[in-house]
């Protein structure tokens, strides 16, 4: 449809209000009606261009409508779209083979589903089947899904809508050194965040939880990168109590943080990895992967009607091919360093900037209140003004005051400077 014939934001909002469940919220006071995407850019119904620094929440790692993914999808759609796993098709097994080649350690077997939430549900089931236990530990400020169990594993009240969450889940303080939950500072602390894991096992569980869920770097929790010692030490505690480690790499997986998986940064190999988002190249995907030994306990029938369907699996194969061929994981590391450096140079001393942190192309800028505006309102204002200037950023954190940068991994250095300079300008006019 030509751009001037599209209905525009007002009509979209009216229909949304009338027909969607009201929980489906959107960003911005004046949201654009997005109608097209290409590479790093999105376009609205007024023909305005936006540089996308949020990638549909860490999904469009190769940018929008990457020709190789789009061609692969179109070819597959014209050939075979859907059968379910009760019939044999090739893309699902080829994808499982490709994923096995990039998984760390002995992880080699995968179950495909359709979302990150479904992946975490499956991982919890698998951990229960393997250990014969059913309690879980998770981190405060973590996000693991919007289904009943996913929400119950989530440690952010913003996303815990259910007044009667699933029991048997204990949340422990996260390793967030900026604003340490124990009031300590890194280098001088005794890793109370690790002690808290053991204390929780001993005091708030039967002593035998099945597993602990972690986001290696918390995304919705405000881009929290734990200190280098955290996961190796946590692994020791979990091993002591024969618990599994489940790394939720839904947001961090496939190069986002400058490693294929974020857990690779700490040389800690989880027992189960869950993922989704970027792998599907824009098509809905979820998966959990594990070792041969753990996989062997899940032999009763399992299925996800659309899981590993030919279209998604083909898109994912095209995505993995480009990701590796074009060295985008290393690129994420390199460009991520430039993004951090540029933010620090331009905004490091800005009075409203509390903290700048991240790894690879997963970066957060925590804002603080001015004399006249609280930090969450300021974040909303900055987000809105950046959008009006043609730049889309994200917003995360338990206080919703962390500007979030997760651009496609194909972002150019000059585009990084553009967004950072504009952010400096937008922040400078706020009182
Ligand atoms: N885990 C993490 C770390 C996530 O960021 C998300 C989504 N933001 C989920 C799980 C849930 O994924 P989905 O929305 O695909 O169910």
**Helix/sheet category:** alpha/beta
Low-confidence stretches: none
Kindly state the mean pLDDT as a whole number?
Answer: 97
Q: Give the number of DSSP strands.
A: 15
Strand content is: 15-25%
Order of helices and strands: HEEEHHHEHEHEHEHEEEHHHEEHEEEH
Biggest pleated sheet = 7 strands, mixed
Spatial ordering of strands, largest sheet: 4-10-9-8-7-5-6
Descriptive account of the structure:
With 431 residues, this protein is of the alpha/beta class. The chain folds into two domains: 8-65 and 328-428, Aspartate Aminotransferase, domain 1; 69-325, Type I PLP-dependent aspartate aminotransferase-like (Major domain) (Aspartate Aminotransferase, domain 2). It is 36% helix and 16% strand. The chain contains 13 helices and 15 strands. It has helices at 9-19, 55-58, 67-79, 90-102, 116-131, 148-153, 192-204, 230-240, 292-295, 310-325, 328-347, 375-388, 413-428, and strands at residues 34-38, 41-44, 49-52, 107-113, 136-139, 169-172, 211-214, 244-248, 272-276, 286-291, 353-359, 362-367, 391-392, 394-396, 402-405. A seven-stranded mixed β-sheet has the order 4-10-9-8-7-5-6, sandwiched between helices. β2 (41-44) and β3 (49-52) form a beta hairpin. α3 (67-79) packs antiparallel against α10 (310-325), α4 packs parallel to α10 (310-325) and α7 (192-204) runs parallel beside α8. The longest helix has 20 residues, at 328-347. The model has no long low-confidence stretch (mean pLDDT 97). It binds 4'-deoxy-4'-aminopyridoxal-5'-phosphate. The site of 4'-deoxy-4'-aminopyridoxal-5'-phosphate (PMP) has 15 residues, from α5.
């Amino acid at each position: 449809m030509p751009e001037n014939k599209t209905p525009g934001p007002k009509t979209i909002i009216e229909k949304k209000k009338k027909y969607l469940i009201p929980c489906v919220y959107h960003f911005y006071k004046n949201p654009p009606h997005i109608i097209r995407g290409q590479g790093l850019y999105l376009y609205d119904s007024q023909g305005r261009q936006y540089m996308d620094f949020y990638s549909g929440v860490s999904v469009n790692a190769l940018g929008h409508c990457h020709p190789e993914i789009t061609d692969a999808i179109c070819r597959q759609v014209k050939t075979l779209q859907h059968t379910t796993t009760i019939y044999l098709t090739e893309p699902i097994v080829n994808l499982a083979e490709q994923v096995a080649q990039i998984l760390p350690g002995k992880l080699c077997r995968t179950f495909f589903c359709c979302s990150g939430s479904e992946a975490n549900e499956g991982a919890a089931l698998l951990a229960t089947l393997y250990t014969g236990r059913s309690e879980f530990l998770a981190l405060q400020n973590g996000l693991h899904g919007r289904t009943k169990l996913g929400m119950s594993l989530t440690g952010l009240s913003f996303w815990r809508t259910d007044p009667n969450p699933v029991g048997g889940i204990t949340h422990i303080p996260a390793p967030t050194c900026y604003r340490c939950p124990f009031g300590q500072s890194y280098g001088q602390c005794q890793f109370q965040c690790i002690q808290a894991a053991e204390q929780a096992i001993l005091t708030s569980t039967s002593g035998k939880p099945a597993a602990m869920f972690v986001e290696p770097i918390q995304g919705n929790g405000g881009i929290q990168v734990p200190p280098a010692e955290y996961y190796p030490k946590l692994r020791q505690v979990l091993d002591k109590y024969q618990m599994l480690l489940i790394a939720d790499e839904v947001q961090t997986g496939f190069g986002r943080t400058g490693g294929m998986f974020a857990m690779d940064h700490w040389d800690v190999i989880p027992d189960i990895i869950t993922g989704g988002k970027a792998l599907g190249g824009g098509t809905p995907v979820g998966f959990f992967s594990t070792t041969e030994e753990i996989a062997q306990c899940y032999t009763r029938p399992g299925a996800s009607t659309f899981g590993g369907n030919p279209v998604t699996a083909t898109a994912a194969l095209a995505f993995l091919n480009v990701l590796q061929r074009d060295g985008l994981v290393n690129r994420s590391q390199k460009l991520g360093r430039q993004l951090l450096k540029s933010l620090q140079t331009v905004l490091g001393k800005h009075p409203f900037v509390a903290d700048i942190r991240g790894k690879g192309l997963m970066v957060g800028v925590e804002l603080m209140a001015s004399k006249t505006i609280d930090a969450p309102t300021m974040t909303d204002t900055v987000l809105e003004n950046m959008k009006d200037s043609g730049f889309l950023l994200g917003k995360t954190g338990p206080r919703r005051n962390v500007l979030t940068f997760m651009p496609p991994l194909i972002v150019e250095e000059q585009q990084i400077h553009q967004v950072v300079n504009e952010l400096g300008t937008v922040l400078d006019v706020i009182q």
